[in-house]
Specification:
The structure is a homodimer. By secondary structure, chain A is of the alpha/beta class. Chain A has 13 helices and 15 strands. Chain A binds a DNA duplex through helix 1 and helix 3. Chains A, B: It comes from Kribbella pratensis. Chains A, B: One of its GO terms (molecular function) is kinase activity. Chains A, B: This is NBD/HSP70 family sugar kinase.
DNA sequence: GTATTTACGAACGCTCGCTATCTATACTGT
DNA sequence: ACAGTATAGATAGCGAGCGTTCGTAAATAC
């Protein structure tokens, strides 16, 4: 069973290919319904072939039939239109953090059917499993999807995830927490494939999908921790399994990778915790600054960026330092990967243009091709969205037998 | 004509698919000839289908028939065996440097038919075109392949290459030299697709193929200049077009990217020129060292590594410094890419274990997953080999309609 | 109310691959 | 030396699928 053999087969396989071609054409234009004539044009197949495939897909529940469009007042007999029946195989995305559980349900076309968040002040591992179950049920009932319809689940986990076993290294967030228990638990609730992946990877997938899917994307998740996901032409790059761990990049002053400490040098230098600490120090050194006014004793990361946005020179110096450290750490990877865009998400992304411009200025000096530098538009929902996206990809890959075909005319 | 449509079609396409499946099966086992029964087993097709496909491929010249194997003394009627007829579509690879032109001809199965090198003490652009023509003809006649049989050509060029237009930026090597002229010239000699790519990319492709094709490879070309190619699961990663330009990574003491200077900070710091300079300085500072003895006035890069291999502490210090600078520059990319292996080729690779071990020690401190660190086994032929490889990929991609197919059983 | 336009539906012919059968060839054992 | 056997190649019939062509249904325009 050497994988990767070029498939061959009889006419039944041909039928499967053509049905898949029709389904794929419908998917591409989702959510707009299509007339059969349009499908004929797009697939290059004959009308009877398409009609037969459509019948079959209608029976199987993958497509749904629409009445004639009342807005489309054209001549002749009105065409029957079909569109993807999203409910045929809805998927579920799961984002579990120590203080927040988010569950999203999406239909086949990628429409969000429901999105339920629940926050709490630190659960134990056991409680967390219970909460997850509740939130899943809530999301399902809000989406009006029975549990047994769910076709795939993807869960997000911090740390480094082994793609196949689902084993996780470096997870500090919840004591006693195990992703394997999570998978088992979810498998008990929903009878379908359950996969697990790194949260930064999933966020990257969501952002890449939102940007159109082509090119190389480096999606940075910047909060207390620092990670990145790499998406190349719509596909996640995993490397050996730990790709994108930018938090462990050495800085000019710190290059210690300690197995005891789950955080790396760059995280220690520019994580949200570190930014707040730099801000506090700067406020102490300059008590009359706007920064000190804004923050007081409990000075926060947000305060630093707020003061910098108000052109406080003390805060701006802090931002400048953070941006410089970050840009110098990231520049080598930008040179090597040469991405189309670098997108920054996570808590620190709320800093906005102040930080982005500072990074952009530094990065411009250190790279050849300057990638677009953007903030993530998806904000905190990026991870769940990416989880749903990956679950969708899984479902589609199972359903469509041929991924692509090079024209040989 | 939106690209990427899932292909569908009639029975003639089915036939094409099955013929391609048979051809692919033969290719996979090349150069070993296969019996029809084996093809039946490997493709999963019925015997008449395979037989018909084999007939067709024999007529078209893609396969050649072998007599029964005299060594295989089994019962029953001896089977006729078929194998890839490499001469069906030979390809040509071209590596053009300022002082050396290398041309290789390969058959479809990847066997080298000929490899011709010619060195000269600096040609003008006009002379170079002439020399290229001569060397191509020499390689063709040595391989006994008529020029009109060549199915694809790939030429290697230093600098950053635009994949489609063939335009090149940053080429300092030969004054008045233009890769566009090269392509025109070759198109005039050989009537087939001519492509151009970065030499580091092509070397990476060759090394990846030699290693088996899966996983992520970072292949460094380390000579006077410094570049790298990235191959992910057998496919080249180009980014926007300038991926792998590690020569421009900033060092601790130098981060200037000057459009005037075609070399980047890391090249200036650890390029072979810089290593020699460091060695000369060290020799001056320590006149009684083995390094000073070996090198004298005209101390070379090779002398530094030779002295270090003989455990000269002065030379070892130089190597240590080079390794440290290199490892610190490369570590971020290793963290982000998380490659299966890092392979070092080019002139400096001749340094051998002395340098490799030093780099390995440094890299181990700065990364999470430690990739295999190796020297390129292909030495100076890596670029031509990669050029032939890419030309082969091009030919196969044109011939095989379906690249892969996910089994849906 | 008729003509026109557009789309759906059914019948026919073609190609292709699979199953089953028959023939060809060389080795083995008595 | 001859019959037996095992393996491979060649051929005929069957079924499945696609494409082409024709007829029919349903809406709009005059």
């Amino acid at each position: 069973m050497s994988k990767g053999t070029v498939g061959g087969g009889g006419t039944t396989m041909l039928r499967r290919i053509n049905v898949a071609a029709v389904l794929d054409a419908v998917r591409r234009s989702a959510p707009a319904p299509l007339r059969v004539a349009e499908l004929v044009e797009r697939t290059g197949l004959a009308r009877p072939t398409v009609a037969q495939a459509v019948d079959e897909l209608l029976d199987a529940g993958w497509l749904q039939q629409h009445g004639p469009d009342s807005a489309d007042r054209s001549l002749g007999r009105p065409a029957i239109r079909v569109s993807l029946r999203g409910r045929a195989a809805p998927v579920l995305g799961l984002d579990v953090g120590p203080h927040r559980v988010t569950v999203g349900v999406s239909d086949l076309a990628g429409r969000k059917l429901s999105l339920v968040r629940r926050s709490g002040p630190g659960w134990t591992a056991q409680e967390l499993l219970g909460v997850i179950g509740e939130v899943i049920n809530e999301a399902l009932s809000e989406a009006e999807v029975p549990a047994e319809d769910i076709a795939a689940v993807v869960a997000a986990s911090p740390g480094i995830v082994d793609e196949h076993t689902g084993r996780v290294q470096l997870v500090p967030s919840v004591p006693g927490w195990s992703a394997i228990d999570l998978i088992k638990h979810v498998r008990g609730l929903l009878d379908c494939p359950v996969m697990l992946d790194n949260d930064a990877n999933l966020a990257a997938l969501a952002i890449a999908a939102a940007r159109g899917g082509t090119g190389t994307l480096l999606a940075v998740q910047w909060g207390e921790r620092l990670g990145a996901g790499i998406v190349i032409d719509g596909r996640l790059h995993r490397g050996t399994g730990a790709a994108g761990e930018i938090g462990f990049i050495a800085t000019d002053t710190d290059d210690v990778i300690n197995p005891e400490d789950s955080r790396g040098p760059l995280e220690r230098a520019v994580g949200s915790e570190a930014i707040a600490a730099l801000g506090r120090q700067a406020a102490l050194d300059n008590p009359q600054s706007r920064l000190a006014e804004l923050g007081g004793e409990q000075l926060d990361t947000a305060d630093v960026f707020a003061a910098a946005a108000e052109r406080d020179p003390v805060a701006q110096a802090v931002v400048q330092q953070v941006a410089r450290t970050f840009a110098r750490a990231l520049a080598p990877s930008v040179l090597v990967l040469d991405p189309t865009a670098v997108v920054i998400g996570g808590g620190v992304a709320r800093a906005g243009a102040v930080l982005l411009d500072a990074i952009s200025d530094q990065l411009r000096l250190l790279t050849l091709n300057h990638p677009k530098l953007e903030l993530s538009a998806l904000a905190e929902d990026a991870v769940v969205t990416g989880a749903m996206r990956m679950a969708l990809d899984e479902v589609w890959q199972r359903k469509l037998p041929t991924p692509a075909m090079t024209s040989t005319t």
